[in-house]
Amino acid sequence: MQEFDLFVIGAGSGGVRCARIAAQNGARVAIAERRHWGGTCVNLGCVPKKLMVYASEYGREAEDAPAYGWDIAAKGYDWQHLIKAKDREIERLNGIYVSMLEKAGVQLFTGNASFVDANTLEISSSDLAPNAEKQIVRAKNIVIATGSSPTRLSIPGAEHAIVSDDIFHLAEQPKRISIIGSGYIGVEFAGIFSGLGSKVDWVYRQDLPLRGFDEELRKHFTEVVSHSEINVHASTHPQKIEKIENGYELFLENGKVIETDCVLMATGRHPNVQSLHVERAGIALKDGYVPTCLEDAKTSVKGIYAIGDVTDNLFNLTPTAIAEGHLLAERLLGEEGREWSFETTPKAVFFTPPVASVGMSEEEAIKHHHNLDIYTSSFTPLRQTLSGRKGKAFMKLVVDTQSQVVLGVHMIGTDAAEIIQGFAVAVTAGLTKRDFDRTIGLHPTSAEEFVTMRTLTRQRNA
Ligand code: NDP
């Protein structure tokens, strides 16, 4: 039986980082993956999604180009071309993940890992390795990094719907798509399919999309969406889906019935714990998640840790899982571990234009700080002046009145994600509004607005 210092279950972003750092520093490390090397982000999430976002933006650019003197027009769209090109790139990335792990000295197991007891795992066949023989391994430390999967609503006809895992391999582009949910995935795919020319019906139960983001930002985002072709059905619940001759009918609580070719449920994700048998190791799940201590990723059982989406500790985002994996590997090697500022994790939603934030929303900030200075700016970006494209950029600073520390930076507009990554350094460093004010702007950009907001929009008192 093989024995390891560390065995990581799941080769997604967090698991790969943890295994690689530990192995590079001399530990005997193994990792098991049952489905895709690189996990959700590389195979069924961030990377293919972003490629699709890029694809969806060219039509709009072709529409705007004549305003700048170009004699071009988009003649049509080839979905199969995109899917094949995307698959080639993902295959390349899978290979990079495998060779990166091997080079670091990590032993790879392809198959499904489950607990026999707190130090013993069984690796059995999986989709990726259907003929794999069972193997038993032992490890001093085990890291659960199995990620999460999309959740389907339990409404009649739910079996007719697809989830985000399916969208990356659709044989045909749906000409009409109904999207349920207004979180990250719902927003992003509403933008992607609208950009690719599909008729999009977007259904969500809140009055504003993107719950959890700054409310004023959400209002401005709704305004941006109103200039798109997307048909919004807000404040309503989906009730059932029925198959009809030419597609499906989606019935809404408000009485509307939408005819569509495809229903996408973008209604959250749940942790991948089904085949792990954590109970054999003595771990009890909490609301379906593996409970861990936020500080050190420890579960209730000595030597077993969990990171990423399978826990419910942090934002379920790739960079936080990577940071958790890195920190855990360093700590297992006896180091203190580098410092990460999880609370100032920036967030972006890749609509066109994107929405991005770092730090506190106004609603969060007022719970912790008595008085706030709020600065906002809304303007038509220079690029849209010649084309006449509608939809304003919006930028907002949330500042603690007393200390003048900038608590939150929020934006909707072209390159918002790229811009907010830079401002995340400022918020992490605890910089003040005075630091923003003494920074010289970079002209002409949208980003310079963040350092030229001189006039207070309003004060807010608790
Ligand atoms: P989210 O949690 O972001 O959004 C789920 C959506 O489904 C919400 O609109 C929610 O409504 C709605 N919903 C949940 N249950 C029901 C129900 N019973 N009936 C009707 N609507 C319902 O999940 P996503 O699936 O969009 O994304 C999953 C996670 O993946 C994200 O939270 C994020 O961590 C990650 N992700 C990150 C991306 C990025 O960084 N750009 C991109 C994609 C995913 P309500 O708001 O009312 O709860």
TrEMBL record:
Name of this chain's protein: Glutathione-disulfide reductase
Cofactor(s) the protein needs: FAD
Family, per entry: Belongs to the class-I pyridine nucleotide-disulfide oxidoreductase family.
GO terms under cellular component: cytosol
Cofactor binding mode and count: Binds 1 FAD per subunit.
Binding-site residues for NAD(+), renumbered to this chain: 181-188, 268
Active site, renumbered: 443 (proton acceptor)
Subunit structure and binding partners: Homodimer.
SUPFAM superfamilies from the UniProt entry: FAD/NAD(P)-binding domain, FAD/NAD-linked reductases, dimerisation (C-terminal) domain
Gene: gorA
